[in-house]
Amino acid sequence: MTADPLALNPVTGIAAATTDLSKVYGRGDTRVVALDRVSIAFREGEFTAIMGPSGCGKSTLMHCAAGLDSPTSGSVRIGTTELGGLTDRQLTQLRRDRIGFIFQAFNLLPLLTALENITLPMDIAGLHPDQEWLERVVSMVGLAERLGHRPAQLSGGQQQRVAVARALASRPAIVFGDEPTGNLDSRAGAEVLGFLRESVRELGRTVVMVTHDPVAAGYADRVVFLSDGRLVEEMVQPTQDRVLDLMKSLGARSHTG
Ligand SMILES: Nc1ncnc2c1ncn2[C@@H]1O[C@H](COP(=O)(O)OP(=O)(O)OP(=O)(O)O)[C@@H](O)[C@H]1O
Fold first, then answer.
1. In DSSP terms, which residues pair with 92 in a beta bridge?
2. pTM
3. Is the CB–ligand 1 distance for residue 204 below 6 Å?
4. How many angstroms separate the alpha carbon of residue 25 from the centre of ligand 1?
């Protein structure tokens, strides 16, 4: 039996959790078990990196944990809300109000200014940003001077900073990033990772990031490793070198069966 990751603290302290989460795609010859009974909790105020070889289920885990995809079995909670019990409309609302997303592609609208892009999700929802919070976020990502610029007038790193600010604007309980530095050079990537780190330390957010990059994982408080849809290792206070060593030993282990 798998322990319930929420049993430690059923009310507070856990921003999101999965229990025995499985996801199976296709059937018959094309059946793929992308996730195999994954139980994991993401604690409030913690920065977690999800790593593992290509195809091991990282994106599927993130998408299910963020309510973007539905599990085949098992459950997902955001805070104390069980996603399986929600209607599509309630799920949309929960994603909008309590979750921030950052993807590898910046996904900014070209005709809108940086500020308009940052507040767009809230504008669509008819919500008013908390001005003080918005100013903190904008100043943290160093965009105060560029709020009137359109995406084409910004570098890739600056565009991803806009996407980081957009993800944080509604003061979400948890921010999910899918390879958020995958399209950036190392300097711009380091800046974005620094902002994610700061959003945890200074703004008290919870961040979960999928990455292939040991350097990026080194910014996290812990790294979890998936292999063939299962959680196989966890490392707290990772450094780039320790992550690299563990990746090598996991690779060797999987090759020797
Ligand atoms: N929509 C889908 N239909 C069928 N199979 C899928 C689908 N999405 C993912 N898969 C399969 O599920 C497994 C896990 O995919 P997933 O994208 O979660 O892996 P990943 O670790 O994020 O990979 P990568 O690092 O290459 O992005 C893979 O075998 C993949 O081919």
1. none
2. 0.91
3. no
4. 9
Rounded distance between C-alpha atoms, residue 193 and residue 199, angstroms: 10
What percentage of the chain exceeds 90 in pLDDT? 79
Q: Which two tokens stand for residue 187?
A: 């300097």
Token pair, residue 98, equals: 């309590």
Give the ranges where the chain is alpha helix by DSSP (H).
58-65, 88-98, 114-124, 131-140, 156-168, 186-201, 214-217, 240-255
CA of 35 to the centre of ligand 1 (A): 9
Alpha-carbon torsion 116, 120, 126, 127, what sign? Answer: negative
C-alpha triplet 140, 188, 240: angle, nearest 5°? 100
3-state SS, residue 252:
helix
210: helix, strand or coil: strand
What whole-number distance in Å separates Cα of residue 35 and Cα of residue 37? 6
Q: What is the pLDDT of residues 146-178, one digit of tens each?
A: 999 999 999 999 999 999 999 999 889 899 999
d(CA 219, CA 47): 8
Residue 79 has pLDDT above 50, yes or no: yes
Q: Which domains occur in the chain, in start order?
A: 47-56+85-255 (3.40.50.300)
